[in-house]
Amino acid sequence: MKTVTRRLSTVAGLTSILALVWACGPPLEEVHATADLVLRGGRIVTVDESLPEVEAVAVRGAYIAAVGSNDAIDRWIGPDTRVIDLEGRLVTPGFIEGHGHFMGLGEAEMILDLTQAPSWEAIVEQVGGAVAGAAPGEWILGRGWHQEKWEHPPEPSVEGNPVHAALSAASPDNPVLLEHASGHAAFANAKALELAGLMADSEPPAGGELVRDPSGELTGLLRESAQRVVGAVLAETRKARTPEEIEAEAREMVELAGAEALRHGVTSFHDAGVSFETLDFLRRLEAEGALPIRLYAMARYASNEEMESRLPDYRWEAEGNDFLAVRSIKRQIDGALGSHGAWLLEPYEDLATTGLVLETEEDIRRTAEIAIEHGFQVNTHAIGDRANRAVLDIYQSVFEQADRGPELRWRIEHAQHVHPDDLLRFAPLGVIASMQGVHCTSDASWVPQRIGDERARTGAYMWRALIDNGVVINNGTDVPVERIDPLASFYASVSRQLADGSVFYPEQRMTREEALRSYTSNNAYAAFEEDLKGSITVGKLADLAVLSRDIMTVELTEIPGTEIDYTILGGEVRYERGPWVQPKP
Question: How far apart are CA 34 and CA 541, in angstroms?
Answer without folding.
Answer: 17
